[in-house]
What does this fold into?
Amino acid sequence: MAQIKLMHAKLHHLRVTQAELDYVGSITIDQALIEKVGILPLEEVNIWNVENGNRLTTYVLPGERDSGVVCLNGAAAHLCSPGDRLIVAAYELRDRRDVLAQGHTAKVILADEQNRCQTFFEQRLNPQGAIGENLSVTTPSSVNQTQPNHLHFSKTTSVKYTTLTQTYKTYSSSLLQKTVLTTDRRALLPW
It folds into this structure.
């Protein structure tokens, strides 16, 4: 069956703490963060620099636990500076039939200014529902529950999610359906 690539982990708004040009590649990330979202050492990740728009692909090395370290190594150090905000995403290949039958879950951390977990949630592609209407986001408090509460998006959904003070909006057209998570300060998850 056809394989598809789906995001399984995302670290959102990490702050670069170091950039080490004279090192053999990679990004070093606080071990506590990569463990929480399930990114493995040496796993390939995509990195998007929010400040300058640079994009790159590299692999992850675990940094000291609870240190907040986010260090770009080697050539990647040319693309990011200390203080820059990054989005780091990891993907996995899944059988399309399995995803449609069983669903898929991605773990997401929204980091604070010190690269600690400010908010943790899961984005789930649920097996039930029509394509484009089966994406849900858990509340942070429900992630560890056996039956989490979901926000189900459809073409007309627009709800205020007050526990996170974030608003979920769905925009659709005949060619595009896009779900955006926003806060008072900026768009956080532009899919």
User: Anything to note?
Assistant: The first strand starts at residue 3 and ends at 15. The CA atoms of residues 49 and 86 lie 5 Å apart. Confidence is low (pLDDT under 50) at residues 145-191. Helices lie at 31-37, 96-102.
